[in-house]
Structure formats: structure tokens, C-alpha cells
Amino acid sequence: MSAGAFCNREVVVAPATTDIVTIAQLMRQHHVGDVVIVDDSDPERVIPRGIITDRDIVLELVAGGVALDRVAAGDVMSHELVTAHEEDSLWQTIQRMHAFGIRRMVVVNNAGGLEGILTLDDLIELLADELSTLAKILPHSRAREKSRRE
Q1: Out of 77, 95, 99, 134, which could bridge 52 as a Cys pair, Cβ 3.0 to 4.6 Å?
Q2: Which of 22, 26, 52 is nearest to 38 (CA)?
Q3: Selected residue with higher pLDDT from 149 and 65
Q4: Residues 3-149, CATH architecture
Q5: Contact, 112 vs 44, CB < 8 A?
């Protein structure tokens, strides 16, 4: 399965000039822990430039006593955005997330346009489902073998 096939395509986005309070409100409104910061200069393509997480807001700004009304998303976002291409396998994507120590991976197409986002929670849910299916194989196999012998 590819990153593009499994990623969440409903991504909350905002330009870098958006103030932090608005970013936090977007997170609350959409029940997400991140907002992808996009280049808004080309209305035809949505190009991701960074990401800001709820953790960034709390640890970098709130805990640091920074006046939130003076900060824009572009001031806090990760500037070196790590992405996966939509055709990358989930295994490649997981390895990349591990290598960079990130919990959220923005998924892009060949033109660099935003396709979706893949989170650690998404991957854990998928793997839990797959492990559950695997766990059911053994009892089913045993029952099948038993019915053959009878």
C-alpha cells in the first residue's frame, strides 16, 4: 500500500501569514493536531511549505511566555518540511518518519502539490487492523486442518 492510498486527504491548511490564535482555532474546529502551512501565491496548486503542530504552539510559544498576538504561523512552522511522495510505500514512509523523528508526514505528488497527510495515529490504526487480521489466521487455519482430519 502506498502513502497516497492511505493518507488523509482532508488536510487543514493556512498561509504562513496566519496568526497563531487562528491556527489554534483551526485545530480546535477541525479536531486536528496540525495545520499544514502552504504557499498561497499560486491559486492553482497547493504547495506545502511547513507544518505547525499543537505541540509547537504549547512548547515553543505558550511555555516560553511569547505573546501570541505577535506571532504568525511562518514564525513557528517547521521550515524543513519532510514529505513523502504519494507513490512511496508505507514501509518507506514509516522508515522516513523514524529517521527524522516525526509523527506527521505530509504527502505530495510529483509536482510537489499537497495530496494529504499521514500521521502516526493513522499508521498505528492500520497496523492494529492488520495485526488483528493476522491473529485470526491461526485459529482459522487450525479449524480448517481439524475439519480435514475428521
Answers
A1: 77
A2: 52
A3: 65
A4: Roll (3.10)
A5: no
Specify whether the backbone of 30 is left (phi greater than 0), alpha (psi in -120 to 50) or beta. alpha
H helices present in 10-119, as ranges: 20-30, 54-56, 73-76, 90-100
Which residues does 47 contact at the CB level (< 8 Å), separation at least 6?
A: 38, 39, 112, 113, 114
Q: Has residue 42 got a pLDDT over 80?
A: no
- Residue 98: which residues within 8 A CB-CB, separation 6 or more? none
Question: Which residue ranges make up each domain of the chain?
Answer: 3-149
Please check the confidence at residue 140 and state whether its pLDDT lies above 70.
Answer: no
Q: Residue 24 has which C-alpha cell?
A: 489554534
The residue type of 119 is T
- State the Cα–Cα distance between residues 70 and 88, nearest whole angstrom: 39
